[in-house]
Design goal:
Number of domains: 5
Strand order of the largest sheet: 11-10-16-7-8-15-12-13
Structural class: alpha+beta
CATH architecture of the largest domain: 3-Layer(aba) Sandwich
Mean pLDDT: 83
Helix content: 25-40%
Low-confidence stretches: none
Largest sheet: 8 strands, antiparallel
CATH superfamily of the largest domain: P-loop containing nucleotide triphosphate hydrolases
Shape: globular
Number of helices: 14
Number of strands: 31
């Protein structure tokens, strides 16, 4: 295919601004998918994506479109909108030359719009500003176009108007993509095959399938190539394009986006950002991607230790399709062996654990999410703490530092007073305010990452009736006044419930945690306590009474001493059970304790 007739582009936007709906119309209008086979969210192939109405994985697709009496190939990559999946977006931007910046006509420019726009600008892409949902009765099309023009410093004529639902303006958008987005060019002057990996898929039958953007040359089936960084030679079993399903072709060439079936089933060889090149290529690898830095940590343990090997295999498989989470083996005295995992955010954590349950039928115990703390002990030793249960005791700690985020919130001014109260509760420091568009204000602030995880997103959405939007970046480490809080069940600490909390909130958090656990824990045959311990003392306590069952209740007639003897025997049994019995914590209790507001 002549590179001059290829256009590679992505759609970037805030969550729920209509990316997947617009992608559906593009596929329909270009005839990539027949109308009778059309369904909503065509590119969102994961069951979880359809359920939640969000895009989790980027998805490439190839379309054909005729313009100026010539046939063009359009390679689209549909990207996620939630901030937790911004690493997916950053990888997709490396494979394209242009981006459609989609802004909802009913909501206007949102905080995450700014983040994804900056990523596209840093990648040097051509931006096509587009306002979606213009058919909605709530659309403020002219006001939103003015906002976009202010943001991009462009004229209103440069901003396109589309409706993903009705298809209005979509044909014009396709023609503008061909007109505005530059044709792909090669960074190196060579005819040898070179391409960059931007994603993975794994098949039990054919092994790793790499998604790649070809920079130079051509690759065909059975042409020997190698991973430049891993230094591994392999022979492609199949090469092809996304139409939108994997469709085999004879070859893929410079400028094209496609896939290569490697046949490799060993973990750790293929990696996102590696260069695949012909054996004759002597140039250094292409510039890859920065490795994502996990910000939220949680331990995953199989409910049954018999499933440990399955959990290890499942994490390895998921790592191939989502390279942005990390895992390493660890052991706990009460929970057995498991894995300490790093995630890009709370939604990312929830999605990965849900996929493990659904796709691999695993019953998991998930510890309370935490962040990374840098701790200096009184004996001068320094340590990095990933797990709350490993946080040192209060009397051993000299000082602690924690990650701080710089955050932007865009909100209508009417909700500012309610937001300020939430910001104070979450230890936020407002460092700037400015008017943003028509009747909206943008707040810039700093806040501990620890507080961002404490249900902050939901609180802001609740206080602002859903009108506020948030984006953030981790910028620095600062001293923190935090302590470890343990939860004891029947006098035994449960590592999965341990957490690091602000000293000023320790009593409130202790009460809340004990009360929540008291509500969801099942009763046993004996009475036991749920307690919260911090600062070297018990702060909160509740008792769950044992089940009442009278062993002598079934006896009728005879001497009363018969019943008295049985009751004494039962009393002794209860006493022994209390001393030596254990409390079994069901799987759903761990899940409910992890989820806020449940």
């Amino acid at each position: 295919m002549n590179p001059a007739h290829i256009r590679n582009f992505s759609i970037i936007a805030h969550i729920d601004h209509g990316k997947s709906t617009l992608a559906d119309r593009l596929l329909e209008i270009t005839g990539t998918i027949e109308k009778r086979k059309m369904q909503e969210q065509v590119l969102d192939s994961m069951e979880l994506e359809r359920e939640r109405g969000i895009t989790i994985k980027m998805q490439p697709v190839r379309m054909s479109w005729r313009a100026n009496n010539e046939e063009y190939i359009l390679n689209l990559i549909d990207t996620p909108g939630h901030i937790d999946f911004s690493y997916e977006v950053s990888r997709s931007l490396k494979a394209v030359e242009g981006s459609i910046l989609l802004v909802d006509a009913t909501q206007g420019v949102q905080a995450q719009t700014l983040t994804t726009l900056n990523m596209a600008r840093e990648a040097g892409l051509t931006i096509i500003p587009t306002v979606s949902k213009i058919d909605s009765p709530l659309a403020r099309t002219d006001e939103v176009i003015a906002e976009v023009c202010q943001l991009l410093e462009c004229s209103p004529e440069d901003v396109l108007k589309v409706s993903g639902r009705t298809g209005e303006g979509v044909e014009h958008l396709l023609n503008e993509v061909i007109r505005r987005v530059p044709a792909p060019s090669s960074p190196d002057v060579t005819d040898e095959f070179r391409s960059i990996i931007f994603d993975f898929q794994y098949s039990n039958h054919t092994g790793v399938i790499v998604y790649t953007r070809v920079m130079n040359g051509t690759v065909s089936r059975h042409n020997k190539v190698k991973f430049k960084i891993a230094d591994k030679v392999f022979e492609p079993i199949e090469v092809g394009i996304f139409a939108p399903d994997n469709t085999p072709t004879d070859s893929i060439s410079a400028g094209e986006i496609g896939y290569i079936v490697t046949g490799i089933k060993e973990p750790g060889i293929a990696s996102v950002g590696d260069t695949i090149a012909s054996l004759k290529d002597t140039l250094p690898p292409l510039a890859g991607y920065k490795s994502p830095r996990p910000v939220v940590w949680a331990s995953l343990y199989p409910e049954s230790q018999d499933d440990l090997a399955l959990l290890r295999q499942a994490l390895g498989r998921l790592r191939l399709s989502d390279s942005s989470f990390t895992y390493e083996e660890e052991a706990s005295g009460t929970l057995g062996k498991g894995y300490r995992c790093g995630f890009l955010g709370m939604l990312h954590l929830e999605i990965i654990t849900e996929r493990l349950r659904r796709e691999f039928n695993l019953n998991l115990v998930v510890t309370h999410p935490s962040i990374t703390y840098s701790v200096e002990l009184k004996n001068g030793k320094k340590m990095t703490v990933y797990s709350p249960s490993l946080f040192p005791d209060e009397h051993d700690v000299a000082n602690v530092s924690e990650p701080i985020v710089t955050m932007k919130i865009i909100t209508p001014p009417a909700y500012l007073s309610g937001l300020m109260k939430s910001l104070y509760d979450h230890e936020a420091e407002v460092i700037g305010t400015e008017n943003f568009g028509d009747n909206r204000t943008m707040l810039t602030m700093r806040m501990p990452l620890r507080e961002l995880m404490r249900n902050f997103f939901d609180e802001v959405k609740s206080v602002s009736s859903g009108y506020a939007s948030i984006s953030y970046d981790i910028t620095e480490n600062r001293p923190a006044d935090v302590v470890r809080m343990d939860i004891l069940v029947a006098d035994e600490p449960v590592p999965a419930f341990a957490r690091v909390v602000s000293r000023r909130r320790v009593e409130q958090d202790a009460e809340t945690a004990v009360e929540k656990l008291y509500e969801i824990m099942p009763r046993e045959l004996f009475t036991y306590k749920i307690q919260s311990k911090a600062l070297g003392r018990i702060i909160s306590s509740r008792s769950i009474s044992g089940k009442k069952k009278d062993a002598a209740g079934t006896l009728s007639g005879g001497d009363i001493t018969r019943k008295m003897k049985l009751r004494e025997k039962q009393k002794e049994g209860r006493k022994r059970l209390k001393e030596h019995g254990t409390v079994t914590i069901p799987q759903d209790v761990f899940v409910k304790m992890m989820r806020a507001g449940e």
